[in-house]
């Protein structure tokens, strides 16, 4: 019987709460939110499930040892004392990633990674007169060494390659949005597949694909070729396939429209390639349309979510560009909840609409805001007047009854 152990799921700044909710919904225990990470308890099967299903996790780490550490030599000595045969073989391959946040260490993370690699290699060399090889790209075991002040945590990386590499993206534009961030934005917007969805500047289609996977409850990493844990000594293939099958049985069909626009024919081609690769062609339609010449052509409530070009991606008049976003939404997209992400906080002033939500988030190293605008059916004023008339009618009817 599998026992529970502690794991840590890493994520992007601003997505910690979303990831914690995902973990709870998946069945994790003792969920605790940190900065750019969420810790939780689960067994081996849950570790497999978390890797396959989580949308906003970057990697799932399994801590195997914690100890106090005073300097580089102390780190080397304590790593040499660990029982590395439990985790890997002398004929296997490994790689080290290190993060250091401590005044005790004057060296950088790269040096700590090299020192850790030497300790593990020397452990095997002393015992077997040979050592496992380092393979940075496809190691059998990837080890994380994290030092915070005087505490060192050694973890195994169960994911292997970062979980944002879903396996469906065959073509990209310049600066495509990270898949984890795209999924996080869709989840932050509250979209679940219960209304229409439009990305009016869809680029290579990442936001559309993540939205369609959420709407249809398709596991985020079902298209991945492999995970790190598949190379571990205790990998249980039967358990892995059983968990995969259970998750696949939970897929549902979304019956609302999911659409993307882009003015560049090359973007439409790339989006279609990626959508086909993700097996989502039946659920997503992309169209060669300039958003600024468009209007809403679907009936009913609609979520609009996009990542407009900003910073170095925008070689036009920023004020005019953001003003045009506001004008197009006002004139052509009633009965819509609109979300977009930007790092240009000054430019937001030119949209000419009042935000109903502003969520701080990071896109790589950029400080961004994820903003929401509520577009009413008709104007906001008309909507308020209608609500007021209904209220007055209710009051007058109450008076008659009295």
Offer a quick outline of the entry.
The chain has 402 residues and is of the alpha/beta class. It is built from ten helices and 15 strands. Helix 2 crosses helix 7, helix 3 runs parallel beside helix 4 and helix 5 packs across helix 6.
Global shape: elongated
Protein structure class: alpha/beta
The description of the largest β-sheet is: 8 strands, mixed
Number of helices: 10
Sheet-strand content, in percent, reads: 15-25%
Q: Which series of helices and strands comes N to C? A: EHEEHEHEHEEEHEHHEHEEHEEEH
The rounded distance between the terminal residues' Cα atoms is: 68 Å
Query: What number is the mean pLDDT?
Result: 90
What is the oligomer described by this structure? single chain
Total DSSP E strands = 15
The proportion of residues forming helix, as a percent range, comes to 25-40%
Radius of gyration: 25 Å
**Order of strands across the widest beta sheet?**
2-3-1-4-8-7-5-6
Contiguous uncertain segments of 5+ residues: 380-384, 386-390, 393-402
How would you describe this protein?
With 402 residues, this protein is of the alpha/beta class. 33% of the residues lie in helices and 24% in strands. It is elongated.
Write the layout of secondary structure elements.
Blueprint: E1 5-10, H1 16-26, E2 29-33, E3 37-42, H2 44-53, E4 59-68, H3 72-80, E5 93-101, H4 109-128, E6 133-134, E7 141-148, E8 151-157, H5 179-189, E9 196-199, H6 206-215, H7 237-249, E10 258-262, H8 265-277, E11 285-288, E12 302-306, H9 318-332, E13 336-342, E14 357-363, E15 366-375, H10 380-401
Parallel strand pairs: 5-6, 5-7, 9-10, 9-12, 10-11, 12-13
Antiparallel strand pairs: 1-3, 1-4, 2-3, 4-8, 7-8, 13-15, 14-15
Pfam families: RlmL_1st, THUMP, UPF0020
Organism: Lutibacter holmesii
Region (Disordered): 380-402
């Amino acid at each position: 019987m599998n026992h529970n152990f502690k794991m840590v799921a890493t994520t992007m700044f601003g997505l910690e709460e979303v990831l914690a909710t995902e973990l709870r919904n998946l069945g994790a225990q003792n969920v605790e939110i940190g900065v750019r990470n969420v810790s939780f308890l689960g067994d081996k099967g849950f570790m497999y499930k978390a890797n396959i299903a989580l949308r906003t996790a970057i990697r799932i780490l399994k801590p195997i040892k914690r100890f106090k550490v005073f300097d580089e030599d102390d780190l080397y000595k304590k790593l040499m004392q660990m029982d590395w045969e439990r985790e890997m073989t002398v004929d296997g391959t490994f790689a080290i990633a290190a993060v250091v946040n401590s005044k005790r260490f004057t060296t950088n993370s790269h040096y700590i990674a090299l020192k850790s690699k030497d300790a593990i290699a020397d452990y095997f060399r002393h015992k077997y007169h040979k050592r496992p090889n380092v393979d940075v790209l496809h190691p059998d075991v990837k080890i994380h060494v994290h030092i915070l002040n005087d505490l060192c945590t050694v973890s195994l990386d169960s994911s292997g390659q970062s979980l944002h590499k879903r396996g469906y993206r065959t073509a990209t534009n310049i600066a495509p949005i990270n898949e984890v961030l795209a999924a996080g934005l869709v989840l932050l917007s509250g979209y679940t597949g219960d209304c229409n969805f439009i990305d009016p500047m869809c680029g290579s289609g990442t936001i559309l694909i993540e939205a369609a996977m959420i709407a249809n409850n398709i596991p985020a990493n079902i298209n991945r070729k492999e995970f790190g844990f598949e190379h571990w000594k205790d990998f249980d293939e039967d358990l892995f396939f059983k968990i995969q099958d259970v998750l696949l049985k939970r897929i549902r069909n979304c019956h609302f429209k999911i659409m993307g626009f882009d003015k560049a024919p090359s973007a439409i081609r790339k989006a279609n390639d990626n959508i086909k690769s993700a097996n989502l062609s039946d659920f997503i339609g992309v169209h060669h349309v300039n958003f600024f010449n468009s209007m809403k052509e679907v009936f009913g409530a609609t979520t609009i979510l996009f990542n407009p070009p900003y910073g170095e991606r925008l070689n036009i008049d920023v004020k005019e560009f953001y003003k045009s976003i506001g004008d197009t939404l006002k004139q052509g997209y009633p009965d819509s909840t609109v979300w977009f992400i930007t790092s240009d906080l000054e430019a937001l002033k030119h949209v000419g609409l009042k935000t109903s939500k502003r969520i701080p988030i990071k896109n790589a190293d950029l400080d961004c805001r994820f903003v929401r605008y509520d577009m009413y059916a008709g104007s906001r004023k008309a909507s308020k007047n209608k609500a007021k008339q209904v209220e007055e009618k209710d009051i007058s009817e109450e008076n008659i009854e009295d």
